[in-house]
């Protein structure tokens, strides 16, 4: 169900998540091609997805948007873990597997980063990614993030411990806008 556009990119639009989107979200976060890279190793039922919607999406401490391409929901992008005093937050995103490698995640991340610095007045944005998620690492680097460190064996996914790479982007380091 289409909703009002909040941010517009070159390839995607970003709009508020509505209740009608919950089925799409639940289906996607239960897909192993999504939950493995984001480190969510437990299934999500309808009630849990509704709780996410009510607590996170509708809460004042996050900005979570639906990524839409040609009127089709393809993923989410958002900011969470806000520290208002230090003016920083953490970026998170996922794109449905059938929409990978089309630039949707990069476009969405660029728009949210610009919004975070220009409208929210953030100074720093962090992001984290598993060592095995090379596409996400490339996405962050293409948007201007720098790898800052590694938390070794910090997450347990698929029966193994994995390193998590931490990235950061300061407001004065962001790349120039693309034409």
From TrEMBL:
Q: Which InterPro entries match?
A: Acyl_CoA_acyltransferase, GNAT_dom, Ribosomal_N-acetyltransferase
Q: Which GO terms describe its cellular component?
A: cytoplasm
User: Which species does this protein come from?
Assistant: Natrinema zhouii
Q: Which domain of life is it from?
A: Archaea
Domain N-acetyltransferase intervals: 12-171
- Specify the protein name: GNAT family N-acetyltransferase
Q: What GO MF terms are annotated?
A: protein N-terminal-serine acetyltransferase activity; protein-N-terminal-alanine acetyltransferase activity
**A Pfam family that the UniProt record links to this protein:** Acetyltransf_3
